[in-house]
Design a protein that fits this description.
The strands form 2 sheets. The protein has a 7-stranded parallel sheet, sandwiched between helices. It has a domain of about 140 residues: Rossmann fold, CATH 3.40.50.720. About 45% of the residues are buried. By secondary structure, the chain is an alpha/beta fold.
Amino acid sequence: MHKNRRIAILGSTGSIGTQALQVARLHNDRFSVVALTANRNKEKLFEQVREFRPMLAGLTEPIAMEEIPADLRFCDWVFGPEALTLAAQTDCDDVLVSVVGMAGLSSVLTAFAHGKRVLLANKETLVTGGELVMRAAAKAGENALLPVDSEHSAIFQCLQGSHGNPVDKLILTCSGGPFRTWSKEAIRSAVKGQALKHPNWVMGQKITIDSATLFNKALEIIEAKWLFRVSQEQVQVVIHPQSVIHSGVQFKDGALLAQLGTPDMRLPILYAMSYPERLPTGGEPLDLFSLSGLTFEKPDPLRFPSLRLAEECLRAGGAACCVLNAANEVAVARLLQDEQGETMTIGRIFDVVEETLAKAGQLPANTLEEILYADNFARKIALDRLNHF
């Protein structure tokens, strides 16, 4: 008899959250949803609460209790930023953290402090607080932190077959995004509409922009270093336009294990939810006979300086990775606000991040307070750079 796992989903109305609920619905004998939170999409959250009937629901953007429909007042409602940390403390086994931004860090640390297993789909947590988070995860027990991002999940899956054999490299694949074949000048002058046309994945706007600039891969290099306890030199980015190989591990003896599948986020989500088991996702399995060919390319750090910046930040240590993340978030937010693409280009994102790193200098990142200070400080610098452009 399998245990019914109780799950809290932070960011339930986003892409990862809604797909997590799809697989929870498919395997309703295996998962019960005990908490749901959203940022501002209250109507979608109301639908989810109506169906899954959690014990707690919350919105990080507060609304009046009178706005909650009468038939949904059976559960506890919480509002404001504390909705996330309160959801992470509910009577659950797992906390899926799929919120965007720095809010994920406090939620993860709270979940660990209350003995929960964390299913992580929030890049900022490890990028900004890697050492702090991994210390908390180690205290929480073995496999207390499971990756949900497709690349890190792929590496984690490959490591299940390593039996302790020494790892040479972690192979992080990426599609290359919409600008894979563009010149440096064309990338720098590209605008929002061009960056949002991802060739393979349907994702939220912020991560789609990060995929176009390869900042998502820069952040994943940082995540992989902490998550798998390797040096940055052991993380290799490989552009793989077909997005069939999701990532892999090369061992010291030269063998390379890779995880293949269709581009379907339900697989890594459900693998984390059901680990160490594998349950069917309801999606189509990979058909090898349909593949016309798999190709691989080296990324170009001159066209995509995000990769170089990530490596420089890891070498610098302290809060450098936190500053990089904050500056990128601020610059991407400005790009997304630029409806006509008149005042903000992709090149400006790279410039703002580099300028912010130079101006912020060396900052410590030993505590949550120091990390939050560095994040706030970097955002102010980045906004200043944007406003004086």
